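Supplementary Note 3. Input sequence used for the single-chain structure prediction.
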Amino acid sequence: MHFSIIPFLLVSGYVVTISRSMLNERYKKRLILSVVSLILGIVFEIFSKEEKRFSYIVFGLLPLLYLFYYEILRIIFMPLIGKFPYLPYREKIGAKVLGYDYPKNRKVKLADYIFGMTLIFLPLITMLFLGILLNNYFK
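The predicted structure, written as discrete structure tokens, is reproduced below.
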């Protein structure tokens, strides 16, 4: 499983860029890639001869988990921020947002950082617990 998870991580990295764009087309490609990633994870898992099971499925599920949590957190954080949530990369609180198609006067808020940290760690924690549960349940 060593190098074979790299495509799943690349797709996950691309899906993460959804938080840096307000473009209308941002969902189409990312949703399609997420579904393809899950299908490939299932196919790799079926043909895998390794002892650890369900690792490909869990890595294939990561982009869909990210999109799911993004939508849930966006709904939760929109009233707190008052605008479309933003995932800061290097911007400091009060700095201008560098994402695509955001209003020009949009500034980074503390809630944006909380949104970003939650969005980074929640899918990873879910993936970790899902992998542990699946491996322990289906021994």
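Helices lie at 6-16, 26-47, 55-81, 110-137. The CA atoms of residues 65 and 123 lie 6 Å apart.
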